[in-house]
């Protein structure tokens, strides 16, 4: 089970004193405020935490009743597991319409029926004479061309009936819609009304008149127009109750023709019902070529004719079969989470209901199946059946006069015929949408077959918005450009068919063009469907160009991308560079495409703008530099292997630094120090910082662990081993200098090696050392092994870290986007000043989880989408009750994962708040042992939950206000004290989120110079300062800082330590004695501490801002 | 000594600074520039009769709450502790100096009079004065960095000395063990070691666990499963119990999820 609401964390944190640190009031308060907005806090603190189940023996082993046995058996056969069964039940309870509401809705429907039938008639007028319409209402249709033959008069409807899911009991909350078919009397219609939109015009006028009258009725809270399923020729009227019931239900009125008014054979997909002469004002080229068919137009007429028969069919099939209804409800939730059901050509709930009916008729679904089984069968069917090639039909008749499936395939991309055999239910569904549905169905089937513990969550509860699901998202704006595209592509017949909807007309050509152009690099191409908008009855209907932007989502194949990398040798970020090449210059584009360059160029502006924005911080040039460092490391490793003269041979050389797993936020560059900038310590071949100069560039040595073979020569005593290791460090330095001329500097624990401008820190390790540190001798002389802090620490550094580094290095080879995502994620966490609460490794592992367990998504192929999912994971994962299992190299079996989970529950209180499990580290969560604290994690959760919608909104609407960097700027108003630092002594000043326009010279040469002296290593005044602050005032305050060039340190007082306390000799740190009510108590000496902040950071600290309004002493 | 330097601080007597019973408070600040004071709480170092303390009685001043910028000379430690004796200085190569926070000081005076003189000090004391500046901030860090650049020769010498002593000790121990090998003690017991003529299993926990595990496996191999009717019945019952347990767990999970409103899909 993954996601938890933001509130849950908070609640849990309060309930578990074992892992709590003194409360961090400022952040805690904030979190509560934020979360309570979204979720009311429910339940007591203890309830937020799962407890290991304790059942007595008697309860476990009592004789089963027959009932219990049946229930257990059913659960096993109808569902995967009892958990899934319970979850599905709960979900259905949540989405199903409660009986009470049903009654209220029924009353409302009766009223609607009554009032619609009472709308007065109007006299007959020409269709083009619309002066009779009252002023307050506009015709909900674009009448282009305006002139059309025929007369219209309004007469009360012949029949008003409820159709659709409400009647079937398959409608799901929220947004309850009730569809009502309003049958227009025969007298209104004339012969040949099927031609040239005449029927649609009358339909619209009919609605306009209805709208006018119902709009004046105070019974209705709102009366508005909308397009039926996004089809702009077919408006419908939305009615909502008045008063507090306004949100209860929306009734949609759909006018429809009397039964059998139109002859179905006139509406075959090959027939034309919109004449070119009328539509284009010119006759088709005089050579007598036939009029183009208008399959979509025909379908829209047919849809209105079949409303009633469809609902009859569905009610016979679904009728009393509860499982089928549940299944349809689940499918609707499934579609909605994937945003597949909305807009023109969406895969609507009606379509899946019909699909279920089809599967029942072909006996793939049985009426006794459970909802879960129905869901599974439908997904299975979708995953394996390509309706774009092999259409299906509900029609059982073998009448030869019926059109063949092939005819439909010619006219429509996706074919699913209804029971009449004339109507293609999937007429508006594009091939892309259907492929997207198939793709999702396949993913979901894999998920269900994987028997994951949290399958339900991932399948039905996790939203998959486009921006989070696709690697690249392109926005097409303004849409009116597509009109020009239609003309250029000569899509006249399509426009004629679609009634001038140039967006739909161009969409098919566009997607196929893109698919063709992207070829093997593309896994899936999806497009957003124009949203169904509502408008006021006194307004003109929205135009096509008003439907926002058209958004295209690309899901890329990582393997395809790398092959493209060969094209651009300078490519840094494979896909970004690839795309820059592909879209960046027109000439490149021409190589791939034929004449139609326009569209591509339009997207380019929007997509590149957003792509450049986010990764700007980190990943614009990073990969190359990282690769160079890794190459240098490989060389060094070879040198170490080949070293002659070491008393013991090298048994392994392993990288243990973020650079060596490609996740260092700012990759190192070769150092070329300008000697004049430094003080030189010639006798030790080292450079030193000078107080009169700005702080020199920050050089972090890359840690490499060098294991030496085990041997009887190693001493059996921990202290002696340390000395021997020191001797090896010295020897290593000597040999590397002698044999390879490398500048080295040895200390007792490591040897720093300068190679090609990169500095490596080689740590010699002895395999047996952790074991020796663990040995304890009991009084009886039995030697047992017990973990000690020293042994755990050593084991982490010499065993776990290299293993993790190599595993993630491997992951990077599989998923080129890993590096970008990890670096972006870490940059964000650190920019929020929370970086020091999390180890580098823990964040890398969270990102690795996005690639190894992407469900319900696919592994991200671009940093942007990966980052969004990082934010989503962090903000929704229930850290309290779940370990994050990162199954590196797929080493853990499902059973082992189950064991890990139960072990986790049993030992929850001893574990840190954030638990990350890997195959190498199944119990201890080594990378989160020292943090984050519950408060810091909670703060991160809150910030991620805030950042995600902001970022998604900006990415979905790149023209909107704001800057992607907004989410990288930390809120500073929560801190009690701000310490402003002088950029002069911040070595990484240029790495700041808002890169400074000017910074200080850091003593580096741009050209390679002599490099015989060891540069200044790991000298970072802000970090040294922070270490001092934490040591001196750690009991009283928390310190927050962005190590990448932050100019400010945030300080939060710990409220608990501000409570006056009795005097204790062991606890006087920074406190003073005060007499309070005649008693001597100790309180923090805040005045002096504030001055200490400046004293300790002399030269670095610019100002200490105490925000006294936030705290009082 | 820091203490002496502090005495040079101006004596701006401030009456009635509250101090805990038995202690006197001495205001202290870093330099002239600061406005606020920290307070040192001092008393004579005294221990109960019979308790061993390495600090000389009567001559030692016990100082609490020493600010982090006082880093020089006197023996400083994090917590008051009685038994700490000035040990041999730890190797700076293998025990890096910790970062100072607020500390506790034991100031040993040459004469007992020093203690009483210190106890009546009124302060305020200054840590850093013009004539005797104390480094902090950037200057301090740079000097720390400079000090941390290692001297390989000194390290080598230290390692060699240590290892020589260690080897000697090990050799002595081994010689002793060899001597005792096979020789019964007063009660006639013979100590068996790994090195003896007939080496035995090492006495470690891991080894004994291994033996137990092997035994267990051997027994499990011989056992018949689902052979008797009662075994059958028990297996079935066990399965049922597992299902029940799982069901209970699931119910608990669902309850939690419901509380967290996890069933609201959107």
TrEMBL record, chain A:
Keywords from the UniProt entry:
Chromosome, Nucleus, RNA-binding
Q: Where is this region: Disordered?
A: 1-45
Composition bias type Basic residues, residue spans: 29-40
Cellular localisation: Chromosome; Nucleus, Nucleolus
Q: Which residues form the Nrap protein domain?
A: 178-317, 324-462, 616-813, 815-970, 972-1103
Question: What InterPro entries does the record tag this protein with?
Answer: NOL6/Upt22, Nrap_D1, Nrap_D2, Nrap_D4, Nrap_D5, Nrap_D6
Keyword Nucleus on this protein? Answer: yes
Question: What is the first-listed, main subcellular location in coarse terms?
Answer: nucleus
Recorded GO terms, molecular function? RNA binding
Q: Which domain of life is it from?
A: Eukaryota
Output the GO biological process annotations, alphabetical, semicolon-separated. rRNA processing; tRNA export from nucleus
**A Gene Ontology term for the protein's cellular component:** small-subunit processome
Q: Does the keyword Nucleus apply?
A: yes
- What is this protein's function per UniProt? Part of the small subunit (SSU) processome, first precursor of the small eukaryotic ribosomal subunit. During the assembly of the SSU processome in the nucleolus, many ribosome biogenesis factors, an RNA chaperone and ribosomal proteins associate with the nascent pre-rRNA and work in concert to generate RNA folding, modifications, rearrangements and cleavage as well as targeted degradation of pre-ribosomal RNA by the RNA exosome.
Under the subunit heading, UniProt states:
Part of the small subunit (SSU) processome, composed of more than 70 proteins and the RNA chaperone small nucleolar RNA (snoRNA) U3. Interacts with RRP7A; required for NOL6 localization to nucleolus.
Protein family: Belongs to the NRAP family.
Identification of the protein by name:
Nucleolar protein 6
* Gene responsible for this protein: NOL6
UniProtKB/TrEMBL annotation, chain B:
Q: Pfam families given for it?
A: RRM_Rrp7, RRP7
Q: Which GO terms describe its biological process?
A: ribosomal small subunit assembly; rRNA processing
Q: Specify the superkingdom.
A: Eukaryota
According to the entry, every stretch annotated as the Ribosomal RNA-processing protein 7 C-terminal domain falls at 148-266
Could you give one GO CC term from the UniProt record? UTP-C complex
Which residue stretches belong to region Disordered?
1-25
Residues annotated as domain Rrp7 RRM-like N-terminal? 22-70
Q: What InterPro entries does the entry give?
A: RRM_Rrp7, RRP7, RRP7_C, Rrp7A_RRM
Query: Which family does the record claim for this protein?
Result: Belongs to the RRP7 family.
Annotated protein name in UniProt:
Ribosomal RNA-processing protein 7 homolog A isoform X2
């Amino acid at each position: 089970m993954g996601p938890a609401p933001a509130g849950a964390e908070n609640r849990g944190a309060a309930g578990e004193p074992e892992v709590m640190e003194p409360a961090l009031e400022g952040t805690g308060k904030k979190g509560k405020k934020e979360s309570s907005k979204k979720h009311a806090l429910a339940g007591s603190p203890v309830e937020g935490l799962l407890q290991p189940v304790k059942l007595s023996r008697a309860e476990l082993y009592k004789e089963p009743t027959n009932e219990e046995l049946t229930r257990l058996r059913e659960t096993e056969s109808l569902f995967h597991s009892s958990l899934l069964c319970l979850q599905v039940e709960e979900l259905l309870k949540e989405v199903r319409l409660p009986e009470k509401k049903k009654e209220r809705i029924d009353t409302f429907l009766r009223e609607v029926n009554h009032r619609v039938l009472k709308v007065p008639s109007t006299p007959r007028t020409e269709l083009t004479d619309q002066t009779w319409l009252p002023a307050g209402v506009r015709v909900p249709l674009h009448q282009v061309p305006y002139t059309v033959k025929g007369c219209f008069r309004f007469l009360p409807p012949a029949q008003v009936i409820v159709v659709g899911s409400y009647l079937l009991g398959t409608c799901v909350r929220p947004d309850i819609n009730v569809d009502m078919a309003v049958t227009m009397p025969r007298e209104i219609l004339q012969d040949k009304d099927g031609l040239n939109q005449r029927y649609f015009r009358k339909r619209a006028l009919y609605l306009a008149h209805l709208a006018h009258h119902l709009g004046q009725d105070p019974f209705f809270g709102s009366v508005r127009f909308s397009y039926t399923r996004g089809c702009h020729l077919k408006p419908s009227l939305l009615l909502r109750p008045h008063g507090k019931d306004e949100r209860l239900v929306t009734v949609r009125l759909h006018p429809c023709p009397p039964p059998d008014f139109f002859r179905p054979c006139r509406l075959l997909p090959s027939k034309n019902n919109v004449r070119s002469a009328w539509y284009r004002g010119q006759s088709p080229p005089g050579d007598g070529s036939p009029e183009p068919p208008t399959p979509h137009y025909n379908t829209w007429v047919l849809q209105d004719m079949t409303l009633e028969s469809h609902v009859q069919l569905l009610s016979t099939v679904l009728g009393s079969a509860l499982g089928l209804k549940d299944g349809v409800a689940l499918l609707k939730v499934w579609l909605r989470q994937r945003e597949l059901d909305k807009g023109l050509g969406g895969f609507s709930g009606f379509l899946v209901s019909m699909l279920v009916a089809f599967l029942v008729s072909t006996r793939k679904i049985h009426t006794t199946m459970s909802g879960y089984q129905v869901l599974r069968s439908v997904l299975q069917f979708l995953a394996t059946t390509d309706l774009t090639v092999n259409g299906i039909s509900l029609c059982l008749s073998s009448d030869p006069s019926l059109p063949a499936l092939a005819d439909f395939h010619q006219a429509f991309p996706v074919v699913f015929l209804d029971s009449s055999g004339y109507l293609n239910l999937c007429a508006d569904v594009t091939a892309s949408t259907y492929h997207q549905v198939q793709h999702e169905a396949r993913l979901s089937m894999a998920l269900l077959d994987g028997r994951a513990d949290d399958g339900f969550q991932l399948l039905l509860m996790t939203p998959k918005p486009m921006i989070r699901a696709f690697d690249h998202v392109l926005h097409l704006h303004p849409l009116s450009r597509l009109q020009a595209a239609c003309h250029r592509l000569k899509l006249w017949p399509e426009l004629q068919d679609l009634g001038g909807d140039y967006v739909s007309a161009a969409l098919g050509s566009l997607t196929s063009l893109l698919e063709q152009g992207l070829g093997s690099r593309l896994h899936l191409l999806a497009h957003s469907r124009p949203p169904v908008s509502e408008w006021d009855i006194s307004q003109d209907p929205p135009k096509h160009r008003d439907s926002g932007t058209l958004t295209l989502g690309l899901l890329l194949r990582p393997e395809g991308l790398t092959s493209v990398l060969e094209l651009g040798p300078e490519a840094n970020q494979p896909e970004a560079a690839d795309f820059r090449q592909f879209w960046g210059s027109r000439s490149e584009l021409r190589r791939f495409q034929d004449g139609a360059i326009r569209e591509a160029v339009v997207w380019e502006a929007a997509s590149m703008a957003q792509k450049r924005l986010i990764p700007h911080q980190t990943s614009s040039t990073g990969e190359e530099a990282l690769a160079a460092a890794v190459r240098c490391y490989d060389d060094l490793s070879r040198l170490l292997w080949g070293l002659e003269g070491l008393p013991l041979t090298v048994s392994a050389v392993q990288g243990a630094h973020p650079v060596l797993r490609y996740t260092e936020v700012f990759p190192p560059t070769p150092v070329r120090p300008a000697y004049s900038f430094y003080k030189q310590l010639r006798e030790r071949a080292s450079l030193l910082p000078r107080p009169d100069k700005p702080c020199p560039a920050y050089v972090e040595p890359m840690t490499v662990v060098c294991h030496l073979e085990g041997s009887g020569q190693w001493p059996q005593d921990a202290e002696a081993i340390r000395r021997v290791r020191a001797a090896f460090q010295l020897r290593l330095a000597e040999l590397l200098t002698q044999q390879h001329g490398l500048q080295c500097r040895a200390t007792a624990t490591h040897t720093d090696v300068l190679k090609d401008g990169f500095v490596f820190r080689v740590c010699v390790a002895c395999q047996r050392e952790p074991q020796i540190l663990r040995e304890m001798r009991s009084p009886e002389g039995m030697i047992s092994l017990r973990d000690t802090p020293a042994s755990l620490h050593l084991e982490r550094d010499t065993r776990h870290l290299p293993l993790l580094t190599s595993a993630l290095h491997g992951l990077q080879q599989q998923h080129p986007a890993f590096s970008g995502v990890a670096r972006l994620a870490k940059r964000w966490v650190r920019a929020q000043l929370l970086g020091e609460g999390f180890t580098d490794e823990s964040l890398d592992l969270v990102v690795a989880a996005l690639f190894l367990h992407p469900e319900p998504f696919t592994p991200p192929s671009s940093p942007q989408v990966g980052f969004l999912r990082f934010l989503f994971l962090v903000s929704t994962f229930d850290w309290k009750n779940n370990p994050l299992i990162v199954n590196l190299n797929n080493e853990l079996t499902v059973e082992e994962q189950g064991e890990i989970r139960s072990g986790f529950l049993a030992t929850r209180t001893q574990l840190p708040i954030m638990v990350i499990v890997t195959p190498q580290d199944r119990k201890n969560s080594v990378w989160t042992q020292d943090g984050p604290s519950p408060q810091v994690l909670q703060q991160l959760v809150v910030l991620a939950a805030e950042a995600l919608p902001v970022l998604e909104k900006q990415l979905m609407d790149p023209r909107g206000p704001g800057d992607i960097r907004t989410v990288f700027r930390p809120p500073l108003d929560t801190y009690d004290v701000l310490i402003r630092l002088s950029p002069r002594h911040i070595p990484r000043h240029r790495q700041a989120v808002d890169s400074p326009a000017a910074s200080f010279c850091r003593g580096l040469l741009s050209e390679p110079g002599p490099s015989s002296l060891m540069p200044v290593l790991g000298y970072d005044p802000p970090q040294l300062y922070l270490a001092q602050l934490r040591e001196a005032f750690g009991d009283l305050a928390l310190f927050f800082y962005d190590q990448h060039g932050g100019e400010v340190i945030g300080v939060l007082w710990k409220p608990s330590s501000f409570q006056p306390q009795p005097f204790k000799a062991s606890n006087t740190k920074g406190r003073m004695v005060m007499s309070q009510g005649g008693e001597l108590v100790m309180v923090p000496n805040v005045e002096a501490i504030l001055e200490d902040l400046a004293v300790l950071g002399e030269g670095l600290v610019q100002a200490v801002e105490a925000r006294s309004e936030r705290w009082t002493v | 000594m820091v203490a002496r330097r502090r005495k040079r601080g101006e004596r701006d007597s401030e009456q009635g600074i509250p101090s805990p019973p038995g202690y006197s408070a001495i205001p202290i600040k870093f330099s002239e520039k600061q406005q606020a004071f920290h307070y040192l709480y001092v008393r004579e170092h005294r221990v109960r009769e019979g308790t061993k303390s390495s600090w000389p009685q009567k001559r030692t001043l016990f100082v609490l709450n020493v600010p982090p910028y006082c880093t020089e000379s006197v023996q400083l430690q994090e917590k008051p502790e009685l038994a700490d004796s000035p040990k041999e200085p730890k190797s700076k190569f293998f025990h890096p100096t910790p970062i100072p926070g607020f500390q506790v000081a034991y100031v040993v005076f040459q004469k007992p009079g020093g203690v009483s003189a210190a106890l009546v000090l009124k302060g305020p004391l200054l840590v850093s004065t013009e004539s005797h500046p104390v480094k902090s901030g950037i200057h301090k860090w740079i000097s720390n960095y400079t000090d941390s650049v290692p001297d390989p020769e000194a390290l080598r010498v230290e390692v060699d000395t240590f290892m020589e002593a260690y080897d000697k000790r090990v050799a002595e121990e081994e010689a002793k063990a060899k001597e005792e090998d096979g020789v019964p003690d007063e009660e006639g017991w013979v100590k068996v070691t790994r090195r003896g003529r007939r080496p035995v299993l090492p006495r470690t926990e891991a080894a004994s666990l291994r033996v137990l595990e092997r035994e267990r496996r051997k027994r499990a191999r011989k056992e018949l499963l689902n052979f008797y009717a009662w075994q059958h019945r028990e297996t079935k019952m066990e399965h049922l119990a597992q299902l029940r347990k799982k069901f209970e767990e699931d119910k608990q999970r669902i309850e939690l999820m419901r509380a967290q409103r996890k069933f609201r899909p959107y």
